[in-house]
């Protein structure tokens, strides 16, 4: 993870103290919101427990109340081996319907002893107040160009990809602070 160092430090403290609240991660796409939560889950649970203890849904695809009542409730209810904490990650939570958010609020309350929710969104104003009040809110900002460039150089070095400064600078410029877009564009350029 690169950029948003204050947020990363805050999340590392939560992991060290093993005191993970429900999280609302806000900010533009491609800056590490979902990746941060997955890293927390791996650190808390260990790699071998991820598949059983983590449910990741893209709320823009699964945004209705039926998904909340079915998939999320069933996962929250399910008994698991080992550590009892489970993580439910809802990416693009700001695209969930209001009724689905209301149902999620009830589930968050009912399963607060065993499940931690992480809601990733671009626009926190589309998340109802009742959900926001149940979460620690962490606001991410776009990556600065120097961090994007450093990561692209690192990737090129690790993957033994030749590059030149103007080419990488063009990728940084087109990414506009979106690390995922920069990496995807690097990959597309390499395979073109």
Tag the structure with descriptive keywords.
Rossmann fold; single chain; 192 residues; globular; 9 helices; five-stranded parallel sheet
Characterize the structure shown.
The structure is a single chain. The chain has 192 residues and is an alpha/beta fold. The protein folds into two domains: 5-139, P-loop containing nucleotide triphosphate hydrolases (Rossmann fold); 145-191. The chain is built from nine helices and five strands, in the order αβααβαβαβαβααα. The protein has helices at 5-17, 33-45, 50-53, 65-77, 98-110, 129-132, 145-158, 165-175, 179-191; strands at residues 23-26, 54-58, 86-91, 115-121, 136-139. A five-stranded parallel β-sheet has the order 2-3-4-1-5, with helices on both faces. Helix 4 runs parallel beside helix 5. The radius of gyration is 18 Å and the shape is globular. 31% of the residues are buried. The mean pLDDT is 88.
